[in-house]
Design a protein that fits this description.
The protein is of the alpha/beta class and about 325 residues long. The protein is about 35% helix and about 20% strand.
Length: about 325
């Protein structure tokens, strides 16, 4: 039987208790005068919440965005803070309950979509104000340098022989990308997904020690979070899940390895519900300027991220589609 380390949704109450009541001032320039859209000066008072632990993909993306926003003088003193718990739904509850606060944004992605269902969260991403999808990246099948699996073929052979004996670690709750990737990989290999022994960690920062300590059969996550360890040889990538090989990572794709699967994850930003139209325009305009900057292009290259930028209504439609797709998949697995 599949073993899943469930994260307690009771922690949501703690997140809600931290809720502030400030009104949005993000649409103000550095001089404090009200403005909107592309005409706004540098935005001030912006906080970007990361809904899991430091060191993971959300955290890395949020801090890269904040640095570019400040370096390019698009914003002043952007603050990034972590509010971990329940696969991101503690943070989601905070955002949904900060109605009208135009100074707050949350870095999120596919993992939060899934966690909102598997953790039975009362708050949903469809309640938030979509700002922008920023990036996408393929997943990676990774092991410790001390793993007996030297190639993806080695792992597949052992996994097929006894699926339940090999633990699969991921930095997201069930329904998130690190869970969906091995479940879809199992399907592509003819392995019964109900026999997959998935162990959930609250973000890549928590998953990394388990990989390094060889405490897992293998891990499924975004390679961009572990580039330092990959380059040093501490983490071995057996395969990546994109259409093409990942630049800077010496590993074949799953398709190259005769496994018929392509899988990508994505990340973006949302704001609380009910923010003013001026605040929404200012936030989107700031992210558009960030996206066009040389600093952001360098960040994409550094972290091996694929540019997947869309904003506003287009991102809202994408979020709605993702929400439905994930709900359908988890319902079939008996997890929603």
């Amino acid at each position: 039987m599949r073993q899943i380390r469930a994260l307690r949704i009771a922690a949501v109450a703690a997140g809600i208790a931290l809720m502030a009541t400030g009104c949005g001032a993000t649409g103000k320039s550095s001089t404090g005068s009200s403005s909107s859209g592309a005409a706004a000066g540098p935005i001030t008072g912006l906080q970007i919440m990361v809904p899991n632990t430091p060191g993971g993909g959300y955290d890395t993306t949020a801090r890269a965005a904040a640095k570019v926003l400040d370096d390019e003088k698009i914003a002043n003193n952007t603050e990034v803070f972590n509010l971990a718990g329940a696969g991101g739904t503690v943070g989601l509850a905070r955002v949904v309950n900060e109605k009208g606060n135009g100074d707050l944004a949350m870095l999120m992605g596919l993992g939060v979509v899934g966690a909102s269902y598997t953790n039975k969260s009362e708050s949903k991403l469809t309640e938030t104000t979509p700002l922008a999808r920023l990036i996408e990246e393929p997943g990676a099948i990774m092991v410790s340098k001390d793993s007996p699996y030297k190639t993806i073929d080695d792992l597949v052979k052992a996994w097929k022989a006894d699926p339940g004996s090999i633990s699969v670690g991921g930095g997201s709750s069930p329904g998130g990308p690190d869970h969906l990737l091995p479940m879809q990989l199992a399907g592509a290999l003819g392995i019964d997904a109900t026999k997959v022994n998935y162990v959930a960690y609250d973000g890549g920062g928590d998953l990394l020690p388990a990989i390094l300590g060889n405490k897992l059969g293998f891990a499924a996550s975004g390679a961009g979070e572990y580039l330092q360890q990959i380059k040093s040889g501490e983490v071995r990538v057996l395969a990546t899940s994109g259409e093409k090989r990942l630049e800077g990572v010496d590993a074949p794709t799953l398709k190259e390895s005769n496994i018929d699967l392509v899988f990508t994850n994505w990340r973006g930003m949302v704001a609380p519900p009910g923010i003013s139209e001026d605040d929404k325009k200012s936030l989107i305009a700031a992210l558009e300027k960030m996206h066009e900057s040389a600093g952001w292009k360098e960040a994409l290259k550094t972290h091996s991220w694929t540019d997947a930028f869309i904003t506003g209504d287009e991102f809202q439609k994408f979020l709605t589609d993702q929400d439905k797709r994930v709900a359908d998949v988890l319902t079939k697995l008996g997890l929603a």
